[in-house]
Structures are given as C-alpha cells and as structure tokens.
C-alpha cells in the first residue's frame, strides 16, 4: 500500500481525510493520497506566488541545473515509478517504464530547447521608422495551474511541468485521482532534488470536489489542462484566467484508401487502436473504408486482434483492465448499443468486470453512437463508405479534431485529402500519435485549444516582454 502526502511549499501536508486510489487490476486499494481542503489549496497558490519572482530571477542555467537533478532522480527511481504507474492506472510494466523514460527525455529536451529561446531583435526600418531598436524577450507568465489526466500520469504531467518551471514560472499541479500516487511521488522527488520551496506544489483531491475551487483561484496566470471535453469546457466557462491551453478528447479516424499493403496497415491500426487498451487520446477510434477494402481488411484485423494478449499488467498483457468500472460500463454500452442498431461484432464482445476484450465491430453506421463518441477503451468500429468524398464528410462531421491517419500508396492523393481533413495532424501511412514530443501537438474543434510539443509548450508558458530603444 502506497501512502503519500501532498507537497505545498516543500512541506509534506497530512490531511484528516484521504483519497483511496484503486488498482484497476483487481479493483483493490493501491494506496492513499491527501484530500486537501480549500484552505490548503489556497496555501499552495500563495506559496507558488511567493516563490515566483525569485525563481524567475535565477539564471536559466541555474534553473536547469536544479531541474536536471529532478530528472536524474526520476531516472534513478525508474522502476519504483513504473511500479506505481502499474498499480494505479493498470499499465503493463514495459509501457510504464517507457513512460518514465519518455518523460525524462522530454525534460532533457525541454531544457536544451529553453537555451535556444533567445529574444527577438527588431528594427523599425521596414516601416520607415529608422530610429527604433526593439528586443522582445520570452518572460515567464507567472503562476500556472497544470491539470493532468489519468492515462499518462508522468508524461502528461511532465509535459506541462518542465516547460513551465524551466522558463521561470511556478506551478500548482493537480494530478488525476487515478494518477495521484505518481503525481505525489513527483512532488516528493522535487523536494529531494532541491527545488526551492513554493516552485512546485502538488494538490490532490477529487476533481468534482476541488476542481472549481482550483480553477477559480485568483493567483493563476495560466492553465494547462489535459482531459475530457466536458471538463475542458467547464474550465473555459468558469476559470479566472483566460490564458488556457486545452488538450481534450479525440475520435481519430484511420482512412484506408487502397489494398496494396493491408497486412502492414492492419498491424499499424491495431497498435494505434489497442495499445494501453485504447485509453489514449490519439488512439485510432474508427476505421473508414470502402466495402471492397473492408471485406479484405476486417478478417486480417480480426485475426491479429485475436492474438493480442489479454489479462493483467503484471503479466505484461497488451489489453489490461480499463481504469474503472464506470468506464468499462460506458464502453460496454457503446458496443451493445451498436449491436442493437445492426452492427456486427467480429471479435471480442466479452467482459470480466472492468476487463474488456479487444472488440472489432463492423457495419457501424453514422446513425450509431459508436461512430461519434469516444469510448476510451479497446473497441474499434469499421465504418463502410461509398467513396472518398463521403469519407471526408464522415471524418469532418465529428465534433472532435485531434488527429487522423491515411493508408495508401498514392501519396499525392493522400496529401490532397490531408489538406481537407479538419484535425490538428494527419499521419500518412502511420498511426495517429502525439509523439515524437518535439512535434507540435494540437487539436481543433472540441479536441482543444493551444499547442503543445517541446518548442510550442515553451512559447505557451511565456509572453513577450519588449524593450524599445529610440535613438
Ligand atoms: P477527465 O475526467 O476530464 O479528468 C482530467 C483531469 O481533470 C483530472 O485531473 C480530473 O481530476 C480533473 N477534473 C475533474 N473535474 C474537474 C473540474 N471540475 N475542474 C478541474 N479539473 C477537474 O479526463 P480523464 O478521464 O482523466 O482522461 C481521459 C480523457 O482525457 C479522454 O477524453 C482523453 O481523450 C483525454 N485526453 C486528451 C489528451 C490530449 O492530449 N488531447 C491526452 C490524454 C487524454 P479527477 O481525476 O480527480 O476527477
Ligand atoms: O493520450 C495521449 C497521448 O498523449 C499519448 O501519446 O504519443 O502515444 O500518442 P502518444
């Protein structure tokens, strides 16, 4: 059993009430974290505010040297962190270790990129104003609030934390409840690494109880949120700060345009759809293709899906129990609804508590919920279309606009289609994915606002400060 306190102003805060974190694999308690009250939450923001100017005044290299100690500790504690991730979000051991390593690499790459964030130097010459010279420096925005989702408890936390802190901001970090053991461990390691008091504060508690309170705190200068559309929109409605980056849900389509290499396409689609049991924002969440191609593709997909290892993260299974029973019920409901409406389950459609077997559903039509809603679980619908024009309509009719993938040998046609698809990024002959982390990552429509990715994240936590010399 893990037991973590919250970290505010480098002090470990004990609370009367605690939050139980449930292991998805077996649904037993994995540990507890602090359930903070309003006063303690406010103290976290006050501490962040009090520390901010001094932290920003340190040289960039000094900030990096302190943060580097933190990334080294993450590396040293790689196995311990992986065990916590496995216990609280049900990731396989290899996925958990990869996530820790990806986060350490993210931190290091962010520190290197921060050194390249040089000021702009401009003259007024272009506009006929010869006597002006301006420098425009990237300066910290101040106090940030970072809120992360459950599915990548270190990576989607660190991709907010590292850019903010290295550029001289201070932070209040609210991890997802399933993710709070990992988030609290990050706080503990930050103290051990020697981050000054108040620079990084971890607040834990249920989002539905403390969410509104934290997003409305007057000290906040900017918010970076990753999670569901509903909560993202709620934050937009009520947050005090209007400087908000949102990375929200998706319904990423895979458009299969020809049958030149269906074996290869199918393998890529399966990793895209089913890794971490489909609990990725960028998971392939619908396949769109013609009748003729579907007739050949579906048996290949089914064959490969049947070979996926289903079971416990402890056995390094590929498909593991989804985060909780509520999510499993929702995924199950989408599958059962589609069946009632005439879709045909090809494989899967089996459930043991919150373990959903990987499910392939053919003949999903645009009248079915499964065509539009995000299951966030191991289910892949096939939507059959008549022609390419119809595929663009089906893709763009979605409220989501995170990513898409196109599979074809005809690269020229793929590029023409990619330009018409309303998403942040189109992947040609590869699954949708956020990584590599140096690529700009964004969603349009309900999938988000603002841009992540190492360079863009640094821009999002800074503003220009201009100084103009008239001579
Ligand atoms: P979620 O339920 O929206 O929760 C996300 C975070 O918001 C958690 O920390 C949650 O805390 C907190 N929260 C809940 N209510 C809040 C409120 N009223 N105010 C402020 N914060 C609040 O999402 P999730 O289930 O963790 O993650 C799955 C969703 O995230 C999916 O829709 C997925 O597509 C999306 N996602 C998007 C990306 C992307 O980059 N586009 C990446 C990963 C995931 P509690 O856990 O305590 O409720
Ligand atoms: O859920 C989201 C996402 O951040 C995972 O990253 O690179 O596997 O798409 P990636």
Automatic annotation (TrEMBL):
<feature type="active site">
    <location>
        <position position="247"/>
    </location>
</feature>
<dbReference type="Pfam" id="PF00171">
    <property type="entry name" value="Aldedh"/>
</dbReference>
<dbReference type="InterPro" id="IPR051020">
    <property type="entry name" value="ALDH-related_metabolic_enz"/>
</dbReference>
<dbReference type="InterPro" id="IPR016163">
    <property type="entry name" value="Ald_DH_C"/>
</dbReference>
<dbReference type="GO" id="GO:0008911">
    <property type="term" value="F:lactaldehyde dehydrogenase (NAD+) activity"/>
</dbReference>
<dbReference type="InterPro" id="IPR029510">
    <property type="entry name" value="Ald_DH_CS_GLU"/>
</dbReference>
<dbReference type="InterPro" id="IPR015590">
    <property type="entry name" value="Aldehyde_DH_dom"/>
</dbReference>
<dbReference type="InterPro" id="IPR016162">
    <property type="entry name" value="Ald_DH_N"/>
</dbReference>
<keyword id="KW-0521">NADP</keyword>
<protein>
    <submittedName>
        <fullName>Glyceraldehyde-3-phosphate dehydrogenase</fullName>
    </submittedName>
</protein>
<feature type="domain" description="Aldehyde dehydrogenase">
    <location>
        <begin position="15"/>
        <end position="465"/>
    </location>
</feature>
<keyword id="KW-0560">Oxidoreductase</keyword>
<dbReference type="InterPro" id="IPR016161">
    <property type="entry name" value="Ald_DH/histidinol_DH"/>
</dbReference>
<dbReference type="InterPro" id="IPR016160">
    <property type="entry name" value="Ald_DH_CS_CYS"/>
</dbReference>
<comment type="similarity">
    <text>Belongs to the aldehyde dehydrogenase family.</text>
</comment>
